[in-house]
Amino acid sequence: MRKGLYSFLFGMWILMILGGGIVVTILGPIEITGYGDANWVISSIIKAITAIILVVIWILILLKMKNWIFKKQIQS
Amino acid sequence: MIDLVIPAIVSCIIAFFVVFVTIPPLIKFLEKRNMAVKDMNKKEDIMVVRPGGPSIILGIIVSEIVLYGFLQLNEILAIIITTTAAFAIGYVDDRKVMGGWFKPVTLAFAAIPIILFGVYDTDLAFPLFGEVQIPALYLGLIILMIPITGNTINSIDVLNGVASGFMVIASFSLSICLFIVQNYEIAIVSLPLGFVSLAFYKYHKIPSRIFPGDSGALTLGAMYGSIAIVGGVEIIAAVALLPAVINSFLFLSSVKKIVEHRQIKGKPVEHTEDFKLKSTVDITAPVTLVRLILTGGPLTEKQVGIVIFKLALFSGILAIITAFLMGVRI
């Protein structure tokens, strides 16, 4: 089981690094023009919604990973 | 860099000795007032005093004020105020049982000094991929960060010496990372956290003579979160904290709501005849880090603590690797 915990830790770390890459690639370039002073607010809202969706996906992957690692450990 | 050596040494000595010297009289004071709880993982009826938070916050405030005298950084003031607010929130919870939402909501307010002092950078830095500018979103991150780190450290305070020992490893890892990313001033500011935790660990390690209580655990967690924000090392700090994050994640994903531990009816862990800890088969009990560790078989409280410290060392190494990767771009 302890091996499973180290695997889960390592998996979380990899997910954080990959997630960072996705955030930089997706959130970074988002820029809204044509709405005057509201540009900043609109782009912030879009970034916030995108970030929340990414976090939810991240948590779902983590849950799957947790179940996969620990079920495998319990079976062995 | 050289001119930071003396402030660093002085503040670390003060941080360590303020806690080390004030804990014995605090223990006597708490014993006189009968402010003690049963140590649930001991065969005999052993009562342990709590909270140790007052000594911890004293060590942090005194050492950081000394550092402020040398460095005159607003970051230090923001850390002191946020950490003191977290201590006050924890102390209220120590004295009066509050609802599950009390700590997360009030800790969010404790983060406000960091925003008011403007001691943050809205660029969130990731290893390998660079930075992303999220001005509005970052304010939300600050508000979330302090409740998360505070409650995460609080949730791992389940066995003798675990919270303080874990904090020693995580905070020194974070300090090393701050040196690696060449944020020397905040690295110096972060050092007292490790030394305060180390001094407290002397009395908290098995068999505990004092428990940190919510005031102690939230103080340590909130200071850790504040350093992560003002140092611009949020991702690295999260990596160093991963075992505690896993504990909170497992707990929340099994309970599926924010509740106080004392509100949970199912027991995740029970005792064998020789008073070792063992995982229960109760499906209503939350999944926790300790429960997962014990699925491999019963262990003593000390052995479980050692496993958690090894996991903390592993994530500390991952945090240091992450700090090096901050300078690499793909």
Number of strands of chain B: 6
Radius of gyration of chain B: 19 Å
Contiguous runs where pLDDT drops below 50 for at least 5 residues of chain B: none
Q: Give average pLDDT of chain A, whole number.
A: 83
- Tally of separate domains of chain B: 1
Q: Largest contact between protein chains?
A: A-B, 31 and 36 residues
User: Which word captures the global form of chain A?
Assistant: elongated
Helices, strands, pairings?
The complex is a heterodimer of chains A (76) and B (330).
Chain A lengths: L1 H25 L11 H38 L1
Chain B lengths: L4 H28 L3 E3 L8 E3 L3 H19 L2 H22 L6 H9 L1 H6 L5 E4 L3 E4 L1 H21 L6 H19 L3 H21 L8 H18 L3 H7 L1 H14 L13 E3 L5 E3 L9 H6 L6 H25 L5
Helix pairs in contact in B: 1-2, 1-8, 2-3, 2-8, 2-9, 3-4, 3-9, 4-6, 6-9, 6-11, 7-8, 7-9, 7-13, 8-9, 9-10, 10-13
Q: Which features would summarize this protein structure in a list?
A:
heterodimer, A: 76 residues, mainly alpha, 2 helices, elongated, B: 330 residues, two-stranded antiparallel ribbon
What would your notes on this structure say?
The complex is a heterodimer of chains A (76) and B (330). With 76 residues, chain A is mainly alpha-helical. Chain A has one domain. Chain A is built from two helices and no strands. Chain A has helices spanning 2-26, 38-75. In chain A, helix 1 packs antiparallel against helix 2 (38-75). Chain A is elongated. Chain A starts with a helix and ends with a helix. The model of chain A has no long low-confidence stretch (mean pLDDT 83). Chain B has 330 residues and is mostly helical. Chain B has one domain (2-257, 302-325). Chain B contains 13 helices and six strands. Chain B has a two-stranded antiparallel sheet with strand order 1-2. The longest helix of chain B is centred in the N-terminal third of the chain and has 28 residues, at 5-32. Chain B is globular. The two termini of chain B are 30 Å apart. The chains are: A mainly alpha (76), B mainly alpha (330). The A-B interface holds A 1-2, 4-6, 8-10, 12-13, 16-17, 20-21, 23-25, 27-28, 40-41, 44, 47-48, 51, 62-63, 66, 70, 73-74 and B 124, 126-137, 140, 235, 238-239, 242-243, 245-246, 249-250, 253, 289, 292-293, 295-296, 307, 311, 314-315, 318, 322, 325.
